[in-house]
Amino acid sequence: MFGGYDSAPPNSPHLRKSGSRTVVYDSDELVNSSEENFWSTVDSDEMKGSAPLSSAAIMPSPLLLWRFKVLLFFIWGYICCKISWDSVMRMSADLRDLFLYEAFLYYNPLLLVTLAVWLWGSNLWVFSLSPVNYAKIFDLDQNHLTHNEIWKCATWMTIIVPTSMTTYLYLYSHGEVSLAAFQPVLLYAGVAMILIFPFDIFYLSSRYFLLRTLWRILFPFQAITFADFFLADILTSMSKVFSDLERSVCRMVHRQVATIAWFEADSICGSHSVAIPVVLVLPYLFRLFQCLRQYKDTKEKTSLLNALKYSTAVPVIFLSALKYHVFPEKWIGIYRPLWLLSSVVNSLYSFYWDLTRDWDLSSFTRIFKFNKPHILSYLVYGRKWVFIWVITSNLILRCTWTYKLSAHLRHNYITLFTITALEILRRFQWVYFRVENEWSKMTNKPQNASISMEEIPIEEQKLLNSNDHSV
């Protein structure tokens, strides 16, 4: 039973290599040969023991490799900042702001998307430590990306996008305008190719899931899943990203990259373009149609109230766009008060919906209760400051996000980038409590809490129904 010869004779074919002949052993020879093989193995292990030890000693530890990568990352960041600063300083002061505005417009969307990827990885990291089963909520397969893989993608995006921007600044400031104009075009084309690449590399299943969800958002002709309206909600916080993306692609198509033609007000891709408010309002319209589809499927009046919330963003966007198409006196006297009123209604309605519908205030003490002891759980679990911070920051950033849609901020790219980045931070803070609230609803359903007797195996039914158990 424990390796004796009775269970496996020496001449068993399972103990011989294929093609070897059968050997007849004597019992004494078998014992002697076993002892010789044992001591020869020990001697050989002692003689060779130093080799694996030395090879393991020269291998660097994972911590050392991680520190080396971080050092290279900071060196790369310093080089990019140095080259970019020197390139900007080469230009005259009157052209510097225009030059930075154009350069920032091309790379602003991808920089903000990179920030969103980093924050999504942080969300998944917290969910992996907590009891929340996010894979079941989003109906993900077994090959879904973990937070480490998401952060790996974000790291490469953090390296590639600023490198392309630094190259653009350097080439433009040194007179290589045609080569500079090629940099954002190459970057956008590369991102599009990676997303639609049909081969099984670069996380094909995850890319397919993202593209399929985007398709379902664009054409909500089917039942709405949690992943559908969850991603659509995130897109509403990134509407400014899509607006800048549209303007950048428009200039690339019309060959206005690294030129001054697009500064003209009547230009196709200028600041007076009608496409700007249209692209800004599209994510809200997609979410509105999803709510109407949910009402059609469920007949719940809550879906209509949610659709009304997204409809309040439409007058905010189009009243703001009227600044470029009416006289200043008319804008100040009529349209600006209407814009302010619609902004207040949209901000307060959205804030009320976050607290009463999307979130459950009691979940604030459940989301950060990790399965294992962790310093983050100690800092935020059950703390009152979490309530105060989340509610206050959500209200303030809701108001600033509506204010960002003001037309007079369109050329203040630093302010717009800051407000958009804060809105993305608010949205991914919202993610923690929205996903946890959905998980709480799934686990507290009556059909999940009780198990019918038909689902219990026959043997277990006998044990449950039996009264005379003998131990």
UniProtKB/TrEMBL annotation:
Transmembrane annotation, as ranges: 64-85, 105-129, 185-205, 217-239, 259-286, 338-355, 375-397
Record region (Disordered): 1-20
Record keywords: Membrane, Transmembrane, Transmembrane helix
Main localisation: membrane
Record's subcellular location: Membrane
Domain of life: Eukaryota
EXS domain sequence ranges: 267-468
Coiled-coil ranges (or none): none
Bilayer disposition of the protein: Multi-pass membrane protein
Pfam families, sorted: EXS
GO CC, any one term: membrane
PANTHER family in the cross-refs: PROTEIN ERD1 HOMOLOG 2, XENOTROPIC AND POLYTROPIC RETROVIRUS RECEPTOR 1-RELATED
Name of this protein: Secondary carrier transporter
Annotated organism of origin: Lithospermum erythrorhizon (Purple gromwell)
Organismal lineage: Eukaryota, Viridiplantae, Streptophyta, Embryophyta, Tracheophyta
